[in-house]
UniProtKB/TrEMBL annotation:
NCBIfam families tied to this protein: lon
EC number per UniProt: 3.4.21.-
Record InterPro entries: AAA+_ATPase (IPR003593), ATPase_AAA_core (IPR003959), Lon_bac/euk-typ (IPR004815), Lon_lid (IPR054594), Lon_proteolytic (IPR008269), Lon_Prtase (IPR027065), Lon_prtase_N (IPR003111), Lon_prtase_N_sf (IPR046336)
Organism, scientific name: Bemisia tabaci (Sweetpotato whitefly)
Keyword Cytoplasm appears in the UniProt entry: no
Keyword Nucleotide-binding on entry: yes
Entry protein name: Lon protease homolog
Domain Lon N-terminal: from-to ranges: 13-220
């Protein structure tokens, strides 16, 4: 109900700009609010704490329908004063409001007094609220009579179809003032945007009637031709209220919702979907049809229906399985990785022979940057299936996989369904990236949700909570990647076949850089013909002193940095001298590297400075990022009381146990090895430290290195140059095998060490190590501590050791720097 003081509307009025249709007085419409100033206006004026129950706003149409220019409001622009009856909002996919508003009368903008955050104008009312007392045209005027005749003809046409509104039609014709009737007929006939704008701008009633007559006549002809009644003419009511001669019509709308819905229905008819889907689709479309777009649930149901229609229930990519092509593709895209490629070819060959056979789910496990994701992409490429990567790192909610139930606010389908929608086929290659990083929280375990997805016996009936219909995932080729297989939950691990990718040797990295990474970076930076040469020596320098990684990602980044530097030079050259578009070819050297990349962050100076001191040994550790050289420092602090063992460096329980074992082994052999005291801890504190305390360390494999460091401390003999060791120690001094040998040996090679002491039982692991690496290293395979000591001190007599110590004291640069 409009309540204005003295029936005059307020002079200062907030505005909404409409772009899709023109509201005329006497008509009620829903206006979608998307433009930012309109949204601000609704938030502040209609939803604010001070807003009145049925606020009054001004509605101004854009002045040209097709104009793409930003909407501006000038002085004298004509609009319609409207009363807001209802506001609904949706927050998904983006925040939008829908405002139900009833047009009351025309107004003219005198002055804009605010433009941001929303528009406010000082306005003047142009016509009355549609009561007959203010009518400016007499009923006997010829134009008025002609108008009434044509309107009667139009109404007669309509009432023949809408028998239930016959009474109301005649009521309108009799009671509604002509000025208002003109607006009404124009709105509900087939007037164009420009015609409606023209009628809005025509304040003079006689003029307005003249303009609406041809519109109605054309509409009558259209109805005659089509034989149908226009759907836009909806049932309506009248009211005798003082100010609102017309009550809101039942939902005319600006948006082309009706058209959209019929498009949706038509699309649903043409779709080929399984019976259980088509049943739900039809049911939901019927609901949509019944509820109208103003219903709060409308957009939720519509989004759901659209998802059902977008999902590739019966659409498959044509698989191209050709083992020769697959071999070529894999070799073209990746250097080395022989065993991985072999396993993938076996996998593809089995599929080629028997397409219905459900192969295992391959899980590629290895340190970062060794090509897990890129080999998965190659598999997709060679099989002709679309590829999609689902990154699972940090996923703690099982709804991410299975979706949210539709009843939740902002519910969404899970990542599997979203991936299928994105790829548009039901047999893509889906890569579950970082499957070892999934977690579990208050909303269930992600691993448990993945079990269903990966189980070939169950996944033909995979049901996402949002979709709530089973989707057949049996055609999807799932691959997974992980950095550390040990932390993958056992039931999940059980469903996958692990393929290990190890770190690369220096030689392999060089080949990968020359054959793949550098050409790729040059291509991506548009430098193919720019004359940039990165010689082998530079790449080796980057590998050795600028990166310390098992994979090649950091190497690729550094090559990218070289390319970017060249691009800057090229662009600068172009702007300095527009005629010259090229630079002279350049071959980088190590000095250029320092200029471009800065001083090398790595190098093994630290190792060399520490090794060679009595009580310091080098061990090897395995991490999910590749192998690492581990420094073990020991020292003895004289105390008068009974000594104690102090361990520092962020150690796990197993590593602490290893240290105690090593100390006790040393106690037990003190006499045999002629140590000064029969109990090294009798009058001293012993401190064993593992530098880099921020990194947690655990496992038994540092046992022999700790024992050797202690032996070195108590005999005051430094361990021989470039010796590194790994192996578990027992109390009796036996050496047990350890894991991750390949990664550890590669780390020793990267650090330019000379000799690796390994447990004898790890002999078979040496087969995995590339020949070129093996040729650079000396291996000592040992079964007990006496052999470890023999190899670690390398036949050095005590006098050799003291010469070495003296050298170290007199010369600041350590001996091992020469390695
Ligand atoms: N053997 C190889 N031959 C050619 N390029 C390689 C090889 N290995 C890795 N690369 C390249 O190294 C880059 C990093 O590889 P990718 O992203 O596949 O690593 P990833 O193992 O998946 O790492 P993360 O575990 O961090 O996801 C890519 O550009 C990839 O093409």
């Amino acid at each position: 109900m409009v309540v204005f003081a003295n029936d005059v509307f307020p002079r200062k009025i907030p505005l909404i700009i409409t772009t899709s249709d023109v509201l005329l007085p006497g008509v009620t419409v829903k206006i979608p609010i998307t433009e930012s100033r309109n949204v601000n206006m609704v938030r502040s004026q209609l939803l604010g704490s001070n807003s009145s129950p049925n606020p009054i706003i001004g509605i101004v149409p854009k002045q040209a329908e097709d104009s793409s220019e930003a909407v501006t409001i000038d002085k004298d622009t004509v609009g319609v004063i409207g009363q807001v009856f209802h506001i609904s909002r949706t927050s998904w996919p983006k925040p939008t409001f829908m405002v139900l508003v009833s047009g009351l009368c025309r107004f003219r903008v005198d002055k804009l007094i605010m433009e941001e955050p929303y528009l406010v104008a000082i306005a003047t009312q142009l016509d009355g609220f549609g009561d007959e007392s203010g009518e400016e045209i007499s009923k006997t005027d010829p134009t008025a009579q002609e108008f009434r005749d044509v309107a009667a003809k139009l109404f007669a046409k309509l009432t023949t179809s809408y028998s239930h509104i016959t009474d109301k039609m005649s009521h309108i014709l009799d009671l509604m003032p002509l000025s208002r009737l003109a607006d009404f007929c124009c709105s509900y006939s087939s007037a164009t945007y420009a015609e409606k704008l023209d009628v809005l701008n025509t304040v003079d009633v006689a003029e307005r009637l003249k303009k609406v007559i041809p519109i109605m006549q054309r509409f009558i002809q259209e109805l005659d031709k089509s034989g149908l009644n226009d759907r836009r003419l909806m049932p309506f009511k009248t009211s005798n209220s003082k100010l609102t001669r017309m009550k809101p019509l039942e939902m005319g709308t600006f948006s082309e919702e009706g058209d959209d819905l019929s498009d949706l229905i038509k699309r649903a008819k043409d779709l080929s979907v399984p019976a259980h889907v088509s049943k739900v689709l039809n049911r939901e479309l019927q609901r949509l049809k019944r509820m109208g777009s103003f219903h709060p649930e409308h957009s939720i149901i519509r989004t759901y229906v659209e998802l059902l229609m977008d999902l590739p229930w019966n659409v498959s990519a044509i698989e191209t399985l050709d083992i020769h092509k697959a071999r070529k593709d894999l070799d073209d895209d990746h250097f080395a990785m022989t065993s991985v490629k072999r396993r993938i070819l076996e996998f593809l060959a089995v599929r080629q022979l028997n397409k219905s056979k459900k192969g295992p789910i391959l899980c590629l496990v290895g340190p970062p940057g060794v090509g897990k994701t890129s080999i998965a992409k190659s598999i997709a490429k060679t099989t002709g299936r679309p590829f999609h990567c689902i990154s699972l790192g940090g996923t703690y909610n099982q709804s991410d996989i299975r979706g949210h139930r539709k009843t939740y606010l902002g519910a969404m389908p899970g990542r599997i369904i979203q991936a299928l929608k994105t790829t548009g086929v039901n047999n893509p290659v889906l890569l579950l990236d970082e499957v070892d990083k999934v977690g579990s929280g208050a909303h269930g375990s992600v691993a448990a949700a993945l079990l269903e997805v990966l189980d070939s016996a169950q996944n033909s009936h995979f049901t996402d909570h949002y979709v709530n219909l089973h989707f057949d995932l049996s055609q999807v080729m799932f691959l997974a990647t992980a950095n550390n297989a040990n932390v993958i939950p056992a039931p999940l691990l059980d469903r996958m076949e692990i393929i290990k990718l190890n770190g690369y040797t220096e030689e392999e990295k060089l080949q990968i850089a020359q054959k793949h990474l550098l050409p790729k970076q040059l291509r991506e930076h548009g430098l193919e013909n720019s004359g940039l040469q990165v010689p082998e020596s530079c790449i080796i320098e980057i590998i050795r002193n600028y990166t310390q990684e098992a994979g090649v990602r950091s190497l690729e980044r550094h090559l990218g940095a070289l390319c970017r530097h060249r691009v800057v030079k090229l662009v600068e050259n172009q702007s300095d001298n527009s005629a010259q578009n090229t630079l002279a070819p350049v071959t980088l050297d190590e000095t250029c590297l320092i200029d471009i990349l800065g001083p090398p962050p790595f190098g093994d100076f630290e190792l060399w400075r520490r090794a060679g001191i009595p009580g310091v040994a080098l061990g090897l550790s395995w991490t999910e990022y590749g192998g690492r050289v581990l420094i073990i420092e020991t020292t003895r602090l004289n105390r008068s009381s009974q000594g104690s063992l102090v361990l520092t460096g962020h150690l796990g329980d197993v590593m602490k146990e290893s240290a105690s074992l090593a100390v006790d082994w040393l106690r037990s052999v003190a006499k045999q090895y002629g140590l000064n005291s029969s109990d090294p801890l009798s009058d001293a504190d012993l401190h064993i430290h593992f530098p880099a305390g921020a990194i947690s360390k655990d496992g038994p494999s540092a046992g022999i290195a700790i024992a050797t460091a202690l032996y070195s401390l108590f005999t005051n003999r430094p361990i021989a140059n470039g010796v590194v060791m790994t192996g578990e120690i027992t109390l009796s001094g036996a050496v047990l095998p350890v894991g991750g040998v390949k990664e550890k040996v590669l780390a020793a090679h990267r650090a330019c060490l000379k000799k690796v002491i390994l447990p004898q039982k790890n002999y078979s692991d040496l087969a995995d190590i590339p020949e070129s690496t093996k040729n650079d290293l000396e291996f000592s395979l040992v079964t007990e501590m006496s052999e470890v000591l023999q190899a670690a001190f390398d036949g050095m007599t005590e006098s050799d050791s003291s010469v070495m110590l003296n050298n170290m004291k007199s010369n600041d640069s350590p001996l091992l720097c020469k390695l």
